[in-house]
Specification:
CATH architecture: Roll
CATH class: Alpha Beta
Strand order of the largest sheet: 1-2-3-4
Number of domains: 1
Radius of gyration: 26 Å
Oligomer: single chain
Length: about 130
């Protein structure tokens, strides 16, 4: 395997940010010439109807020649959002009293006869028997 093939698979420097169902991977990789670039991967977990799950990934390749402008625009955009809306998360899902429509159904469906304790399986004893 070529040096590039080895370097492409090698993690030169990595950081992970876990954020709920999303995970962000920040990975420094090397070009064929041996220079570094950054990949940012968003991985989001989705649950299928049958309970199995899969991930969808989106990747951004960011090269050194774009770092300054990228950083400036990212800073400008994040500052704008914080200035306009503050740091508190505003969404239904993040409200203290948020309840998904399917929460009641899931809670009812999760209860099985085994979840309900029955005294049928207990032996009736009295302390006089001991």
């Amino acid at each position: 395997m070529s040096d590039y093939g080895m370097m492409d698979k090698e993690e030169i420097y990595s950081k992970v940010l876990r954020a709920g169902r999303r995970t962000y991977f920040f990975d420094v990789r090397a070009t064929k010439a041996g220079d570094y670039y950054l990949t940012i991967t968003e991985s989001k977990k989705f649950t299928n109807d049958d309970g199995s799950f899969h991930y969808k990934k989106h990747k951004i390749y960011l090269y050194k020649e774009d770092f300054i402008e990228f950083r400036e625009i990212l800073g400008e955009m994040t500052d704008y959002i914080i200035d306009e809306k503050g740091t508190e998360v505003i969404s239904e899902r993040h409200q203290k009293d948020f309840k998904r429509e399917d929460d009641d159904f899931v809670a009812q469906e999760a209860k099985t006869p085994q979840d309900t304790k029955s005294t049928d399986s207990f032996t009736d004893i009295s302390f006089d028997d001991i």
